[in-house]
Fold this sequence. Notes:
The complex is a heterodimer of chains A (about 270) and B (about 70).
Chain A (H helix, E strand, L loop, with lengths): L2 H14 L4 H7 L1 H17 L3 E6 L5 H9 L2 E8 L2 E10 L5 E8 L5 H14 L5 E7 L5 H15 L7 E6 L9 E2 L4 E2 L1 H21 L8 E3 L8 H12 L19 H13 L4
Parallel strand pairs in A: 1-4, 1-5, 5-6, 6-9
Antiparallel strand pairs in A: 2-3, 3-4, 7-8
Helix pairs in contact in A: 2-3, 5-6
Chain B lengths: L4 H62 L1
Amino acid sequence: MDKRSFFQDLFKLSQSGKASDGLRRMLGADTTAKLERLVSEERTTNPPKVAVIGKAGVGKTTTVNSLFSAEFHISHALRGTDRAQLKEFSLRGGGSLHVVDMPGLGEGIAEDAIFEEIYRTELPKADVVLYVLEADERLLGEDQRIFTDVIIPALNGQTKRLVVGLNKVDLLGPGSWDTVLNYPDEKQEKAIERRCTDIASKLARQVRGLRPDSIAYYSAERLYRLEDLLIILIEAAGKAAWKLPVNPRPWHELAAPEVRDFVREWQAEHEEV
Amino acid sequence: MALTQAQQNQIVRLLERQSSNQISAILRSASSLLAWLADVVDAASELWRRVREAAAEIWQSLRSLFI
């Protein structure tokens, strides 16, 4: 078995809990059965847990839906506030995903104290923490304070697990969104890259413990650069990353019908993964 | 409406980028499973080592009772 198919087989095992024929031949029936049981049990007893933080309207729910293509199952309120919830999603390959959906701070002093307490309790338990912001530098001041005073201390030095997502980049200009391709035109793509690199370096400079390579920019609504965000989340989740679903909705899902036809033909010719 | 050559080229570039990102995600995900399994194996080996040590101590105690 070559290295590439070995890794692909491991990946399939991690996502579905079922070993491929290649792995079975390599390990033998008994060991394969034990491995399948181990992986499935870990998925069931310890589902992946992603904490998603962000103010109302930044696109937390759209991000989770577009990124993980998971089906919402049930939610539980955390510590008596409806605005912070543990949401359970069912995954296509079986198992579940737990998302701790937490509001941002700065919307009301009385509620902030409750949310800060929830951050302190919930963040250390999450495999990865995604802080969603709108990609607009005018809004950064408040968030910098929240990172420094609340989020980074709540992570107890585990800042590697923190990912910052700059969402709604499709609203940045100059340039415009190409609705046929469902992609920014060249001018807008350059503007997005420039503005987001600026925001990321400013944030990383001003918030101690935040690395520029843990900041991703994307648009959850337009399905733009979701794979880039996912890769950063996988890196951040460390040894729990294999439990995360790796099937973000592709950008061409929202493109014009003639683009989708072209993509289907191209993928049929180049089917590999 | 038919796609222009420039549009087709751009779509191919985007699909190639998407495919390379997908491979990157798969490799990272598989590596993380290996790292987790290595931890499980380490923990099991450590447990097995302690069980053997405890068994040896019990055996020594029993031997000293009878010999």
